C-alpha cells in the first residue's frame, strides 16, 4: 500500500460496537479506535452499549458516564433513548451491528453524506476478497460498503500498531524483561518449564489435554486468565473454587489462574509463552503477532459454519509446513474445536515443535507485509474522498 498522503486531520469517525461476546467485539473496536487517534490524526467517537464489559479492558472507564475521554478516544454510552447528534465523516458499524434509526437519519441529513462501512468479522475464506470494498445497502443518500479484515492481499489486513513487531522482538530477546513482567503478575515458573497461556470458551476436550500435559516429561506452567474456560479447569482439578491467584500442581503440570489483564499486558503475556491457546478474534490476531505456535478456539456459529472459517484459515496457515507437521497442528485444532480427546494430537504436535516454532514466526512476518487494518481503513477513506 502506498504511503498515505499527509493530512492535518482525517475527519471525525463514529464507531459503533454492540458487545455480543463479552470482550471480542469491544476488544477489536477499542484497539482500532486508539490506533486511529494515535497514528492517523483521527477524531474518534466510540459508541458502546455495554460499558461494564468495556471496563475489563479499560479499568479507567466510568461505567455510569454518558460521555468521557479515554486515551484520546471519546467514549459514548450507546443510549436506549437516542438523542439527536450530528454524524461524523466516517461511520463504522462494527460486526454488522444495527445503527440507531435516528443516527441514520442524521447521516442522511449531512450536506455531504459520510462514508459508511460495515467492518465485518475476520475470515480467511476465498469469497472475502471478492466482497471486500464493495457497496452494500443504501439508506437514502448514504451508501454502505463492506470492509473485511483478512490474511490475503485484497482484504483489509489485520490490526497492528506501528512498531509492534519491533517491540515484541526486543522483549522476547530480553530474559530479564520477561522475568520482571511475569513476576509482576505473580508468575514464577520453573526454569525448565514450558509456558502455555489458555484463553478459551468452554471445551469438553480440555480435560484430555490437561491429562497429556500433566503426564508429559517436559513440565508445563499453564497460565489461565479469568474467563469462560475456568469452569472446565476447576472440574479437572476437582476443587470447589477457582479464582485469580489460585495455583495448583498435578504431576508435571502447574496451573495458575491470572486476573483478567488489559490488552497491552495480554500482549506481553503472549510474548512470554511458548504456546498460546486463544479464542475469538482479537486474541487470535494478537497470538499471531507473538510469533509463537498457537491453538485457536473459534466462536461457534449456527449450523457449524464456523468450521468452514477454521478450515479456510488452516489451509492458509499450514502452507510451507511439512506434511506431518501440517497434519499434526491441523488435527489438534480440529479436535479442540470439536471438543474431542486431544491426547494423540498433542503428542503428534510436540514431535514437530521446532518446525512449528519457526513457522509461527515466518507466518507473522508474512502477515506484516500487508498494510494494517487501521491504515487500510484510512486509505479507503482517502480514496473515497
UniProtKB/TrEMBL annotation:
Domain of life: Bacteria
Keywords carried by this UniProt record: Elongation factor, Glycosyltransferase, Protein biosynthesis, Transferase
Family named by the database record: Belongs to the glycosyltransferase 104 family.
Keyword Glycosyltransferase in record: yes
Protein name, per record: Protein-arginine rhamnosyltransferase
One Pfam family, short name: EarP
GO molecular function terms attached to this record: protein-arginine rhamnosyltransferase activity; translation elongation factor activity
Matches recorded under NCBIfam families: efp_Arg_rhamno (TIGR03837)
Catalytic activity: dTDP-beta-L-rhamnose + L-arginyl-[protein] = N(omega)-(alpha-L-rhamnosyl)-L-arginyl-[protein] + dTDP + H(+)
Role: Protein-arginine rhamnosyltransferase that catalyzes the transfer of a single rhamnose to elongation factor P (EF-P) on 'Lys-32', a modification required for EF-P-dependent rescue of polyproline stalled ribosomes.
InterPro entries: EarP
Amino acid at each position: 500500500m502506498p504511503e498515505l498522503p499527509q493530512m492535518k486531520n482525517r475527519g471525525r469517525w463514529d464507531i459503533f460496537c454492540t458487545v455480543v461476546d463479552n470482550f471480542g467485539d469491544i476488544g477489536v473496536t477499542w484497539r482500532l479506535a486508539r490506533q486511529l487517534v494515535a497514528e492517523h490524526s483521527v477524531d474518534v467517537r466510540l459508541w458502546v452499549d455495554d460499558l461494564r464489559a468495556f471496563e475489563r479492558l479499560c479499568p479507567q472507564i466510568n461505567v455510569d458516564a454518558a460521555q468521557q475521554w479515554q486515551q484520546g478516544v471519546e467514549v459514548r454510552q450507546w443510549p436506549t433513548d437516542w438523542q439527536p447528534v450530528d454524524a461524523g465523516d466516517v461511520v463504522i458499524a462494527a460486526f454488522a451491528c444495527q445503527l440507531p434509526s435516528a443516527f441514520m437519519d442524521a447521516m442522511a441529513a449531512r450536506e455531504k453524506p459520510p462514508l459508511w462501512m460495515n467492518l465485518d468479522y475476520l475470515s480467511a475464506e476465498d469469497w472475502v476478497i471478492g466482497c471486500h470494498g464493495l457497496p452494500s445497502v443504501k439508506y437514502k443518500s448514504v451508501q454502505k460498503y463492506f470492509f473485511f479484515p483478512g490474511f490475503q492481499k485484497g482484504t483489509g489486513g489485520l490490526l497492528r500498531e506501528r512498531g509492534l513487531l519491533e517491540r515484541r522482538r526486543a522483549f522476547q530477546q530480553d530474559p530479564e524483561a520477561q522475568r520482571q513482567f511475569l513476576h509482576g503478575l505473580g508468575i514464577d515458573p520453573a526454569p525448565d518449564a514450558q509456558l502455555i497461556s489458555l484463553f478459551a470458551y468452554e471445551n469438553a476436550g480440555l480435560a484430555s489435554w490437561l491429562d497429556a500435559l500433566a503426564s508429559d516429561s517436559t513440565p508445563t506452567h499453564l497460565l489461565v486468565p479469568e474467563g469462560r474456560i475456568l469452569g472446565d479447569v476447576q472440574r479437572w482439578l476437582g476443587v470447589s473454587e477457582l479464582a485469580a491467584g489460585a495455583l495448583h500442581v498435578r504431576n508435571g503440570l502447574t496451573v495458575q489462574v491470572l486476573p483478567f489483564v488489559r490488552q497491552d499486558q495480554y500482549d506481553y503475556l503472549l510474548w512470554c509463552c511458548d504456546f498460546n491457546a486463544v479464542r475469538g478474534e482479537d486474541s487470535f490476531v494478537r497470538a499471531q503477532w507473538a510469533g509463537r505456535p498457537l491453538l485457536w478456539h473459534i466462536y461457534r456459529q449456527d449450523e457449524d459454519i464456523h468450521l468452514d472459517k477454521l478450515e479456510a484459515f488452516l489451509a492458509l496457515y499450514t502452507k510451507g509446513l511439512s506434511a506431518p507437521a501440517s497434519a499434526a497442528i491441523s488435527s489438534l485444532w480440529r479436535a479442540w474445536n470439536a471438543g474431542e480427546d486431544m491426547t494423540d494430537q498433542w503428542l503428534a504436535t510436540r514431535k514437530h515443535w521446532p518446525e512449528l516454532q519457526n513457522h509461527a514466526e515466518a507466518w507473522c512476518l508474512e502477515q506484516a507485509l500487508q498494510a494494517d487494518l487501521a491504515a487500510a481503513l484510512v486509505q479507503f477513506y482517502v480514496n473515497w474522498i
